[in-house]
Amino acid sequence: MIPVRFTKMSGAGNDFVVIEAEAAATIGAGLSAWARAVCRRGLSVGADGVLVVSPEAKDRVRVDFRNPDGSVAFCGNGTRCAARYAFVRGWCAAHAVLATPVGEVPAEIRGDVVRLVLPAPVDRGALALSACGARFPGRFVDSGVPHFVIEVDDVARVPLASIGPVLRADPTWGPAGANVDLVSRGEDGAHHVRTWERGVENETLACGTGAIAAALAARLAGAPETVRIVPASGIPLTVTLPGDPGAPSRAELCGDARFVFEGTLSEEAG
Asked: Which end of the chain is more exposed for a tag (fewer CB within 10 A), N or C?
């Protein structure tokens, strides 16, 4: 494996390997294969994805993301981590714009908390899908990534490891599939979310686009403009969807983005 320098970051429990453009150039055309190797837990660093972060202009930063399967995607929590990385490296001020697969994303960095302003999620309607002998009614929400949001009484009691892979690959979504989110409302009004992510092919401790998708479903059910999301990590995110619940003007995703460690990959990693 190519021994490059990297930084490990976490956004509300989503963890990422962050590299700069120079390291990505060293890896070259093999970046997707490198991402597959470095994201493998137990054999390498382990992560929910790889971020390539590079400055483009004053207060403007490019973010390229690879899933653990090597596919290109948008990642909300990854973009928040990229914003803080760029700020700490001195590439941008506390307000910056990140160039991403969903377009230009404004970011505000305050300490270890990062807020993004993203395109509004789109409600694609209610539907019901089958998995493991049961029928699951939910909503199809596009929040930059397709999500199937299922409201349940208690997210902890649903066997996501069993139904997640089946629902994620349902023919409804086409070859690319969709993420699957279980959502339940706690007594404190927060919405608890568990997400099975395509590309990762596993449950993750948090998902930014999943938080937005869950918030839109909550808004359609009567929740206020700002929704508190508690992912599996227990580290909360807040999602604000101003305007009409069915057609908000934008999405604001806010939560922690932390540095975990820095290192150099061994040739034996992966």
From this structure: N
